[in-house]
Batch of 4 targets.
Target 1
Amino acid sequence: MSFIKQCFSLFDKTKRRNKPSCLNEEKKKKKKLHLVLDLDHTLLHSIHVSKLSQKEKYLIEEVGSRVDLWKFDKGNPKEHLIKLRPFLDEFLREANKLFYMYVYTMGTYRVVIVDDTSSVWPQHKRNLLEIAKYIYFRDGMKWESYAEKKRDESRSKGALSNVLKLLQQAHRRFQDLDSNDLRLLIRDPCTLCCF
């Protein structure tokens, strides 16, 4: 009989201890990881309509009747057909419960990466604006830190300000030119300004 009492006593203690952990479970459910998804050939496939094979041209007629097939830039010589990957809707809905999601593309459109470490982007050097490292604290450096000098990087002449000026300039050219590739508008950024 004492064994049964001990079991129930243990059960009660566990139950009481688990109540706050139930609240922790709710917090855990809301806690999400980050997920980066590539667009082209991962979530969808796009093609210039002019590049469709003869056997694929039937798809042009199906655009209005299918939810997974779209035309982009209708009537434009650069007209595209976009096909969503099967299960994409369900995948995004379910993944959204677990992750903060970001979609990117290294295709032809307007992707620029601003980073202080070029070695982490070996395949995407054309998309990279390498910025000077921001090191406010000494953290093992041999020279005096900004914090020790009681000053900081210049707001108007610092690295972020220079990157913004370059991006603004590229965006103005983007508005004026017929190009969707921001990489072409930045031109060798290392020679344009020192970040």
Target 2
Amino acid sequence: MATSIPTYQTLTTVQEFRKAVNNHFSKQINEGQEYDYGKTFDEQKAFRIFHETMTWRKQNKVYDMSTDLFPANYFDRHAIYFQNHDMNNIPLLHYVIRVFHKGQEDNEAVKRFITYNFEEQIRNHPGQRIVILFDLRETGLSHLDYDLIKFVVNSLMHYYPGLLAYMLVYKQPFILQAAWKLIKTWLPTETQNSVKFVDEKTISQYISLDQLSKDMGGTANDTP
């Protein structure tokens, strides 16, 4: 079973953190040589996103999440789990869609488990991005829950910006092609190119065989 998310020994206020950032990065900020804020800055949008994110974290008690919140089968069924790395040594978060059955899951609990995995990653490896590998083998319409996939996308765009390197969609069935075209539109235009559709022949362009499970044609251990 996965370990609990590490907790911090001290908390800080927004004011204290702002002061610490300004002091620590004063040269980069004041001289404008290393940090690029862009030519435009939508202050009101930034305030809104900050408020929504911090409110969401508070309402969902994200800071207090641990393995104790989830039944053992959430880890044992290997539906959402980290295992191995891509060609650039970026961690792979596997999302095995066939394990889920639309309408039979506690979606709120699954969302908390997704958040737990994101949160564990950023606390254990701050600044490191991830690849999400959507495994669509043996997947039909009864498995694909738009609510859960949209939560993943929204979380990456709003609550965990910068966490996603790219997405791999593995062995998409013909019956789900229209569905994934829709899902892709949920991403910002500049991010849509980060969705890569692969099969057993092309996935090795992103993941080496020693990091790819045997049932995907690789040589790695299949068990997380």
Target 3
Amino acid sequence: MVIKENKTEVYALGQHISMSVHKARRVIDQIRGRSYEETLMILELMPYRACYPIFKVVYSAAANASSLLGSNEADLVISKAEVNEGTTMKRLKLRARGRSYRIKKPTCHIKIVMKDISISEYGETFWFKTEKFFKRDVMQELKKTKGKNQDRTREEHDIYNNGGTWDKK
């Protein structure tokens, strides 16, 4: 709901959602680091009950980003997604012979932080590292280290021919 310090991130909170933290984290782990449009498709197609409240929080974070930052939905990426444990509601279930058992109903708090990748912290355009850009960066790093350690050779560990510990019968 509030803009973060660097003016490129906006977040939304969903508090006191009646769901276990473990069930919500199972879904949150799937959407962390993905784009906004891809996240909506994933959440609509996943068969878990936790998807709907998370969908609402993601949608709210995108609405906050478009209203506060004026950003386009295609430029939004989930930079941080976390699920924290909320209060536990304690209820009583009546049983036979006048007894009662305590039932714990857990709640959780969901926080989604969205980042606009078209705006950088310095006012320049910012390219999100897709797989293509990541491969390009790896190749540049290999070119930098190409001439440094040429005299050293590394022998590959061959688990099938070295007669290791697994060959004992």
Target 4
Amino acid sequence: MAFVTRQFVRSMSSSSGAAASAKKILVKHVTVIGGGLMGAGIAQVIKTPMTSQKTFESLLDFSRALGKHPVACKDTPGFIVNRLLVPYLMEAVRLCERGEASKEDIDMAMKLGAGYPMGPFELLDYVGLDTTKFILDGWHEMDSKNPLFQPCPSLNKLVAEKKFGKKSGEGFYKYK
């Protein structure tokens, strides 16, 4: 797990007229607490109904000042990336569970056919099967009727066996 604190003394401004007339927010300290893939890659500000426009625009400006490319999304489970990614990953697992293709063939098809750097099973092992299960279980609890959020037997089995992917040495593939 990484803990990083940096002091930034930057005045944020925005190109919009409404934000330009508002008092600027000065961001003095930023603390990032994260471990691994997600902690290193979060650049989302991906706004709740309680967030002021001034705060939101200041966060966008601050993200840009750090060299990030922020995207905006309403407060929804998974925001943009995980909301699209997790159902894709789970459909790959279900395709294999139904015996329609092997995990190796699914990974190869997505790498060669879609140009992805990793197939879905490789990515699941990289992200962590326990992490993926945690996300899926949370979404299923919120919306149990959504077919995209249904539990996945082979994922549940691997996690119960403590096979979490690369971090444990075995998941859908072995890494020792």
